[in-house]
Amino acid sequence: MKRISLFLKILLIILAIGAAALLVWNKVINRDKTDASKVEAAKSFTAEEFMAKVKGDADKPHTKFIDTTFEISGSIDHISVGKSNADVFFANGDATMQCSFLDNYSKDVKGFKKGDEVKLKGRYVGTESDITSGGVLVQFSNCVIEK
């Protein structure tokens, strides 16, 4: 009887750990699918303001703002459009901001050109060193065009 009781306790602990792991895995997998058009922006910045915040201390904004949706406005430095993806880039000295768009916005991004003033909304996903320029690359995902 004690063996059955011990076996059931161990089985329940294993099931609880498995369920917790499954919930965490599901949250991580679905995190990137947030549609910024359905989320209210926490704050509005110009691209230059946000890049200036992250330029000096790349780790601090990363932990403070990670997975937060912001509204970003500025003048386009360049765009990159592929078959199923599109990116808009803003530049400020040695800092570059990349806004990656949801698939259904690729056609709209094709109409942008260098120097266009735009307002976008997207989820901040991090900052990393840009080894090609020696500067900072600020990344936003699931961006949408704000009208």
How would you describe what is shown here?
By secondary structure, the chain is of the alpha/beta class. It has two domains: 1-31; 36-145, OB fold (Dihydrolipoamide Acetyltransferase, E2P) (Beta Barrel), CATH 2.40.50. Helix content is 35%, strand content 37%. The chain has four helices and seven strands; from the N terminus they run αβααββββαββ. It has helices spanning 2-31, 47-55, 59-65, 106-110, and strands at residues 43-46, 69-75, 78-81, 86-92, 95-101, 117-130, 135-145. It has a seven-stranded mixed β-sheet. A hairpin with a 4-residue loop joins strand 6 and strand 7. The protein is elongated and about 75 Å long. It starts with a helix and ends with a strand. The model has no long low-confidence stretch (mean pLDDT 82).
